């Protein structure tokens, strides 16, 4: 028998989860991209930005790729909600499955890389309040990315259950 | 119709993937747990160990939990290969699905946290060769954990395809 290419959860629920992912990704990217700090004073003054750290660069990249993918998926889901039809068939379901899985791994690793660096830098950093505030904002961006990851993991569970049963 | 509780891939393939996950997890845990370095000399000498860094502690924790879970799954798969029966039914399939998914996220974040810290510490570290060697070993442990993650992600794809189709 050929299983119907329908999804398991209501498309409206799927849409809400996508939009939530998108919102948290957007805020995370804005926070990490705009955060700066000044270390030292006078001639030894050094500007610190996210791109001084590879972990934060990866975090930003994961967030930006996530925004692109989630925007696309949101558009498809809006199409599905409004017309009642899903684009494509089983092939599309498979693409959703792998795409959602890959994205959720990317967001998880992005958040983890950010946390991994920030937590230990924070313990090592002295009383320089500007550096502390920079690290706190980086921490906040990682936390937001982590919340976006949770939503993308939910999407990934949904798309797993929508897989056609292969026998 | 009630879908059969069979898995999609051959149990032997599933077993090989589990054993590979286990091997890489074991080596990763041994490398990170045994790595030490001595910084400075004489009275200012400081011993550095993995548990001085939260990111490496998390990496070790993820590896150890991964070993426990993968050992259990390996035992179940050996049982399946030798008897031809899978323990439980659809309930077990669901447990596999969520367990494999959770484990692969844990290993991915463990490796990413390790890389996130190590890459930037490595750039900041001076010419102290003992510290450099410590960071290189931590990097190797993260890389091994990442390979274990790849295998666990494959297991997770298998268990997703084995999900009963819900209609």
Structural class of chain A, by secondary structure, is: mainly alpha
Strand order, sheet with most strands of chain A = 1-2
Q: Low-confidence spans of chain A: pLDDT under 50, at least 5 residues? A: 1-6
Overall average pLDDT of chain A: 86
Task: Describe, in plain words, how this protein is organized in 3D.
The structure is a homodimer of 167-residue chains. The first copy, chain A, has 167 residues and is mostly helical. The first copy, chain A, has one domain (32-161). Helix content of chain A is 73%, strand content 5%. Chain A has 4 helices and 2 strands. The first copy, chain A, has helices at residues 11-34, 54-83, 90-124, 129-161; strands at residues 36-39, 46-49. Chain A has a two-stranded antiparallel sheet with strand order 1-2. The N and C termini of chain A lie close together (10 Å). Chain A binds chain B through residues 1, 3-4, 8, 53-55, 58, 97, 101, 104-105, 108-117, 119-120, 123, 153, 156-157, 160-161, 163-167, and chain B through 1, 3-4, 8, 53-55, 58, 97, 101, 104-105, 108-117, 119-120, 123, 153, 156-157, 160-161, 163-167.
What's the layout of helices and strands?
2 copies of one chain form a homodimer.
Chain A: H1 11-34, E1 36-39, E2 46-49, H2 54-83, H3 90-124, H4 129-161
Antiparallel strand pairs in A: 1-2
Helix pairs in contact in A: 1-2, 1-4, 2-3, 3-4
Brief sketch in words of this structure:
By secondary structure, chain A is mainly α.
Features:
73% helix, mainly alpha, elongated, two-stranded antiparallel ribbon, disordered N terminus, homodimer, 167 residues
């Amino acid at each position: 028998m050929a299983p119907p290419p329908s999804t398991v959860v209501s498309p409206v629920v799927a849409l809400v989860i996508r939009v939530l992912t998108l919102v948290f990704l957007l805020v995370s990217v804005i926070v990490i991209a705009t955060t700066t700090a000044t270390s030292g004073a006078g001639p030894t003054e050094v500007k610190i930005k996210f791109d001084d750290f590879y972990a934060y660069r990866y975090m930003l990249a994961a967030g930006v790729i996530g925004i692109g993918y989630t925007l696309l998926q949101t558009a498809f889901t809006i199409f599905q909600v409004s017309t009642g039809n899903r684009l494509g068939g089983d092939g599309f379901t498979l693409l959703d499955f792998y795409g959602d899985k890959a994205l959720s791994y990317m967001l998880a690793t992005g958040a983890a890389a950010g946390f991994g660096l920030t937590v230990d830098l924070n313990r090592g950093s002295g009383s320089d309040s500007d550096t502390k505030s920079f690290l706190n904002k980086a921490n906040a961006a990682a936390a937001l990315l982590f919340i976006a990851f949770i939503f993308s993991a939910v999407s990934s569970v949904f798309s797993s259950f929508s897989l056609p049963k292969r026998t």
